[in-house]
Amino acid sequence: MNGSRIAAVGHYQPAKVLTNEELAGLVDTSDEWIRSRVGIKTRHIAGPDEPVDELASHAAAKALASAGLAPADIDLVLVATSTAVDRSPNMAARVAARLGIPSPAAMDVNVVCAGFTHALATADHTVRAGAATRALVIGADKMSAVTDWSDRTTCVLVGDGAGAAVVEGADVPGISPVLWGSVPEMGHAVRIEGEPARFAQEGQSVYRWATTKLPALARQACERAGLTPEDLAAVVLHQANLRIIEPLAEKIGAVNAVVARDVTESGNTSAASIPLAFSKLVERGEILTGDPVLLFGFGGNLSYAGQVVRCP
């Protein structure tokens, strides 16, 4: 095979929906304050009996069903997450056990909000190298478990969920070369640390970096795919903040593209945000088979990764 492609996608969100009005009963905030600053209306929150691997498994099962595959067809499981509670067994091994995947290589990827695009690139490289035949690539996070619900600057942002993709070999590459990197001196800008672990960020620093530096990086990712931004059918950025997503999409120059705005109903779901939003676009028929779609994640470390994929 000359490359790899995404054969199918799937997503999952917990049933519980937390509205801005409900948050206003917990902290000093309001629906107007939240919408005007981050564009979020609602978010889904997992219960105490819904661990990260359960969210991931639901999304992965949907992707497998959509691809018409059985668990035994998978020989690599990659789970991008930064909210795993235990160090071992990792989330990938737990997902494999839940789904009955018999003997996969099973690895977690912790690159926070850019985790899924890093994991997708890793799967692409692995399949093209012949070390795997088919991979499950999952982004799943339970941000509610690492949130200080008394801090209105962060608790209004987060949501829980998962998105997944099946990656397999292809004669015609459907995943372009990745553009990835990091800004180590800004690693402190997004954090999940402490005991107990808590999410914190320097929002203005991330906003300034994203709006000034990321457009050029996104255009470079398009160049690696042999495309221009005008060729894109959709742009799926990390769903951090609507006030970042909208100006970014404009600065990239993707004038003909659908722009994913799932943050409004899902909040910031970290590693889950890109596959979750991508899967919803596919499910709603807003993009069609073969359409070029830019996926670009950024966030903790400060790491970034982006590639153009063809819609399954």
From TrEMBL:
Pfam family, one: ACP_syn_III
Domain Beta-ketoacyl-[acyl-carrier-protein] synthase III C-terminal span(s) in chain numbering: 222-310
Location in the cell: Cytoplasm
Gene3D superfamilies linked to this entry: 3.40.47.10
The reaction(s) this protein catalyses: malonyl-[ACP] + acetyl-CoA + H(+) = 3-oxobutanoyl-[ACP] + CO2 + CoA
Keyword terms, alphabetized: Acyltransferase, Cytoplasm, Fatty acid biosynthesis, Fatty acid metabolism, Lipid biosynthesis, Lipid metabolism, Multifunctional enzyme, Transferase
Predominant location: cytoplasm
Highest taxon of the lineage: Bacteria
Family under the similarity heading: Belongs to the thiolase-like superfamily. FabH family.
Subunit and interaction comment: Homodimer.
UniProt cross-references to PANTHER family, sorted A to Z: 3-OXOACYL-[ACYL-CARRIER-PROTEIN] SYNTHASE, BETA-KETOACYL-[ACYL-CARRIER-PROTEIN] SYNTHASE III, CHLOROPLASTIC
Domain remarks: The last Arg residue of the ACP-binding site is essential for the weak association between ACP/AcpP and FabH.
Protein's UniProt name: Beta-ketoacyl-[acyl-carrier-protein] synthase III
The gene coding this protein: fabH
